Fold this sequence. Notes:
Distance between the termini: 56 Å
Low-confidence stretches: none
CATH class of the largest domain: Alpha Beta
Shape: globular
Helix content: 25-40%
Number of domains: 3
Structural class: alpha/beta
CATH architecture of the largest domain: 3-Layer(aba) Sandwich
CATH topology of the largest domain: Rossmann fold
Amino acid sequence: MNGAQALLKVLVEAGIEICFANPGTSEMHLVLAIGKTDTIRPILCLFEGVATGAADGYGRMADRPAITLMHMGPGFSNGMANLHNAKKAHVPIVNIVGDHATYHQKYNSPLTSDVPAHANICSGWVHVSKSADDLAASGATAIQEAIKGSGKIATLIAPANHAWEEVSEVAPPQSIAPIETVLPASVEEIVKVLTNGRPSALILGGRALREEALEVAGRIADATGARLLCETFPARLQRGAGRVRVARIPYFVEKGVEFLQSYDQFILVDAQVPVAFFAYPGKPGLLIPEGSEVKTLASAGSCALTALKSLAEKLNAAPEPRGRQARIELALPTGALTSLAIGKSLNILLPEQAILSDEGVTCALDIFNCTESAGPHDWLALTGGSIGQGLPLSLGAAVACPHRKVVALQADGSAMYTVQALWTMAREKTDVTVVLLNNRSYAILNIEMARVGAGQPNDKTLSMLNLSPPSIDWVHIAQGMGVRATRARTADEFHLQFAEAMKSKGPCLIEAVIQNPGNF
């Protein structure tokens, strides 16, 4: 047994089922080993950013890691933007990155680079194997590291000769189980804060936004009068009819400051203190009021559900929360195709337990608000702000949950970053409906141009923000990658096309030609 085969044996025994791959020459022995397993499903991605984004979507929905297989430093670098998003979302991922054979690195051939330096930027754990035996043993360690706390990114670098050299002994099966870390603050201290009569808010993020945790948070809110808030870009928010409602903190600085100004105390539950996405001249970086008190009940490395249950018990909270979202079906949209009309269609037509991947950018808020009272569903947001996440994220979510409908709310500009994901959707027959929100512009940048006070843009400036001419033909792009596609120019057309997409299986794309930039 060589190192590659021994590594795959360890991964299989640990329960790894999916490999999102974009391999090269140094990974060929690993490719062969994956091909000989009966358990791990290899999924070819035509760009490393698709592989890492798909691993992110898979990890968010499966709560266990997929592996990625990438080619040396440059290949890993191609995947770094979506690893940045995954890191911010605290998603478990195991990257396996091939490198030159140890004895070949001294020649400084064209692809030689400092792979650990690349990997350390976005990884919580990095290791270069020392031998064929160590390669296999390190696979088990990588998985254990990835599932610590809420999850993190573990990267194992495999010199090519460690993959083809024989192991001296076969590693025994590894017992791999999540390790829950201790809570960062005493629950008694939080009880005192929430019962002192001052206006308070619980800011929920990460796994505190799952249905069971929200149930407990709702009980705490009922017992104390605290308001439940949601971080602006949640990794996975379980929302919709029958679930406990949370208020999402606005994106823009002014709105965020106004939204939070009435609270004196904030309890963080798997979330961080709300901050402005960027710095703006003359505007604050922190959104919470100056002098307000902040306490942490659960960090990203601890179990939010356990912490919330402990707090609810100390507060003698009622066994059921009062504030559940009612099912409210909105009016059938007609006329111009706007983000609001699209949101209404989703409210009416979205099947229960759907998964929405949100990279809608300027169109996203209207759709988010309209779907709040839709059937129960999961909302996956752009956690790290690095665009090009939406299509790969929806691909990975569909692989993790093949029996659930996935809807990718996808802005046109950011879709071009990882458009190759459409090909993998078609090849894998994933049940993803892409709603391509085409406003022919990087509309968010037009908004930000005005907000940063940079001055009045001229035609040359605006040419760097607009996506026409030429106009991108998304129907033909999708069809060229094997995805069926239609185009909607009115609300009526979109409603009919989306209804058909919800009734059918397999990947499809609806190019929604938007008539306004949306209520971002």
